[in-house]
Every structure is written in C-alpha cells, then in structure tokens.
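Annex B. Sample input.
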Amino acid sequence: MSALALSSTAAWWILAASAAAVVLLYLLKPSPRRLLVASTLIWRRVLSSRKRVPDRLRWWMSLLLALSIALCVALALTRPQLAGFGGQAQQVAVVVDDSTTLGALTSDGKRRFDHALERAREAINSGGPESRYLVADTQRTIASPRFETRDAALTTLERLHVVPGGTPVFTDIVAGGVAQVRTVLVTDGVAGVEPGAKVEMVSVFQIADNVGITAFDVRPIPGDARRQEAYVELSNASAAGKKTELQIAGAGSPPLTRVVDVPSNGAANLVVDVSRFSGGPLRASITTAYDALPIDDVAFSFLPNRRAIHIALVTAGNPALERSLRLLPRVELTVMTPQRFSARTGIDAWVFDRYAPREMPNAPALLFRPSRVDWLPRPTGDTGETTVSAWSNSHPITDSLSLRDVLAQRALAIRDGAHASVIATDASRRPLILASASGPRWIEVAFALEDSNLPLQSAFPVFLNNAINWMTGEPLALQAGLGLIELPLADARVLDLSGEKVATRQVPGATLIEAAQPGFYTGFAADRRVRMAANVLDPHVTRVNDSALAARPPSPPSANATARIAAAPWTTLLVIAALLLAFEWWTYNRRFTL
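Annex B, continued. Sample output.
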C-alpha cells in the first residue's frame, strides 16, 4: 500500500483542515505572564539599546513555517490522487501471456515471463492515479478478472506463473478492444494469440536456442514381438545445428545413450532397441549446450512386459485352433480335454472350445460356442446360417481386423449382452462376439470354429493375437499433455513415478490431476489400474523462435512509468518538512520567529 492514497477530494479536505488547525492555533493568544520586579530602570535601558524585530513580522514568519511543515507532512501522508502527478484517470487492462514458451530463458538469464511481469508492472504504474486496472492472462488462471486499484492489481499480477499445456486465448472481457479501456497484451508472440486491433502489443520476445523431444513412442519390432524399439524425434529451433545427447532409462538395465546431430530449424529421427529393459516406464532425456526451455527435454513412455504367456486350451479336439495358438509369439500352450479340466494356478488365460466351466475361472477366458452356464449370457437357441455384418472399430480385439467375409452355418442366438460389450453382430443385430472387462476378462464367440470359415480367414491369427493381448497384456499407458489431466477412473488413488501420492480432484466417472512437468502416473481404483504419461511432445512449443514478433525488437521499459514515479514527490515532501523543522528551530533560537 502507498500510505493512505486518498482521492483528491478527501485529500483536499485533510489539507484544508490541517491549514485551518495551524491558523487557529496561531490565532489563540496565550495569557500574559505577570512578573513582579523591584525596578524597571534596567529593562528600559536594555530595550532602548537593542533593535527590536516587530512581533507582527515574527508572527507571520512563524505561521508560514508552520503551515509549510503541516502541508508537506499532510501531502506526503495522504498522497492525493492528482492527475498532475500521474496522468489522467482511465481504465487499463493488462493481459499477460503465460503460455509454455514464456518459460524460455533470455540472454540475461531471466525467463521471458519475468520480463513480461516487469512490462506489466510498468503498464500498471504508468496509468493515472485514479485509474482502475484489470489483470488477466491467456491461460485463464485468473478465473474472474475485474477492475481494481493499482496496489490490488500489482498483487494479482504476482500470482501469475507460466502454465504448461493448455490453449492460450485472449480474454473475452477485453477481446473487443473497447475504446474506453486501454488494453495492453504482453507476449512473446509464439502462441499466436489474436488480440483486437486496438490492443497495444508489448513484446518480450528474444531469440533463443532450444532442442526438444517432440515424439517418443515404444512399439514391438515387426516379426519379433519379444523385442521392442523406441521411436524418438528431436526438433531444433536454433539457427545452428546442435549436437545433442539422448539418454533412455528404464528398469533392469543401465541407460542407453546416443549422440545425435540435429540440423538447424529441423528435426532428427532415430529408432533405439529397448528390449534390454525389463518393462515398465521409460524416461527419455536430452542434453545440449545453451538450451533455453528445459520443459521439453524430458519425455516418458511405457514398455509392456514381454514374458511368456501360459495359455490352456480346453477342447475335445481342434487341430486348427491348437496350431494357431502355438504360432502366436510368447505363447506357451497346454492342451487338455473337458473331462480333465480343473481350475489351476499359473495359467494366464483359458481358451474353451465348445465348452464352459460351471464356475467362472480365475483367469481370463476366450470361449467358442460355449455350453450354457450361469456366468455367461443365456442363449435362446440356435440361429441358421449367418454372417458377420458389423463389428466395432474401436475395441482392441478388432484392431486392424476385418470380419467382412466371416460366415457361420449356425450360432447361438443371444438376445442380450448381459453387461458385456458387443464386438460383432449379424444382419439382425444379434451378438456374435461379446467381451466383458468386469472381473476376469472373457470373450465369447457365438459360433464354433468348425461351423464357420473363420479359421480359413487371414484375420484369424490377428483375432487370436488381439484377444490374447487384450486378456493378458499390460494395458498401454495413456498419453496426455501437461496441465489438467483426466484419468478414466472414478475415485482413483494416483501415484507418481517415485511412488508419491498425487493431489487429485474427483469428477463423475474420472479423476483429475495436474501435471506441471513431464511425468508418469499410475491410477488405482478397485481392481483396475490406469497408467498415464504426461509429456510436452509439441513442436509448436519447442519452436520457441517461431514468433509473429520475431522481426520486432523487445519493447523497452516504459518511460511513462519512470516519469510518474519521479512526478510523485511524496518522499521529497517529507525531506522538505524535515528541513523546514530544522530551519524553524534555528529561527526560533535566533528570536526571528515566535
């Protein structure tokens, strides 16, 4: 706060009251003192030999000094809002760009955002004393901007910070550039925020060197599902090429290191075999000289577990199905007849051919025309010849799969999915393939393989592989940008990569967390687990020099702010008051004043 900072009307009243009080005190005449002396001869000689200063002149000198001291002190304390000391009163809206690229370092070691805050303070200080100020930001962290006093606006400004992720926009309150409102946008011009035509643009853009990770993905090597490779893309926003060190770290093995030459204003792609790691989160990081934006130097991905899958096939005899299962990668197959079936441990998934156990197994199951049991949807009978006419394109079971030419001589007639997802239907929209993710996962195919041409289709091995992966595979990590992230789990407990609990907020059917830095999160709810990798991976962020203000030099400090501060001599008035007090003491002791 700047002392009282009263309005001009209130200040004038206080000044007038102070002057009146001083004058009244001087108009009051103290009672004369009575002294008894033996003789007046000596006092007459003294008065006749000494030059007298008229009392009226001394009184006026004392009054003027007292008035000057009182008014200086009153002005310094009240600091009246005078247009002559700071410009005309107006409404000033200051919008600060707080998007990710404002975190880039400049030549003086400060961030662009630090310079943006300085320019915003200058815009506020350069306004008139009776002006009102609105502070807003492009990421809308200030939910309800409003016009307020200078000191309140400066306090609001201090709450702003760089917000990673999100989509910056120019606030609707001042988007129209209303004539009565002076609007100032402080930005580096990279986010491409479009203000109105009447908005003053204050540039804090400075060219900077930056290399970032713009892609990081893990996938199996074609032809060998036991091996995995990581695809990495590095982008360079610098005017010169950069020698960059890439490191990929994971569990079970020392980090992998590669040195990559990234061309100027270009990108470099590389593929790294990460099969040496045992599975789980992978962290990619880069190191290069003079990197201005650290937030895009780290990225996370997930390496699925590649252990062998133990599959038990229960069938009275089906060589085509047995042969197809044995050809699947990572599958170790055990075959048994329905008469020898018994629940056992060590089985990752069951495959039942024209049979179903009375009790739901404790492991996922794939069933072809199962017998009637209580834990599966009840059929109403059989259908005649039918074909697959529609199937889901979004379910993992049918990923990269076409069932257009699949037909069956007969199939179970199932009316209701019974809380299961319908994957494929016939022309009458009766379910032919169903899947359930509640409890141990199961997939039901309504027809037997020998009653259809599915084993003869090229899609059959793909279907088996997708089904086994969906039932037994570690779910791939979801990908998200920075900022507010939604995990598709209700009432979840979320941990970060170090095992620390993350602050959450619950919404219907999901859990929200906020990621300010790249990280890896795991959400737990009941018997479900969801993994989430939060990364930047945005070329528009890494290209910190791709600015609409690149050809324009950074805006200099505001001269109006310096002039306003110099034109408000409140401290000077206190110094003058102190000097007048000293002068009044000297004149009093010299008998020049009363």
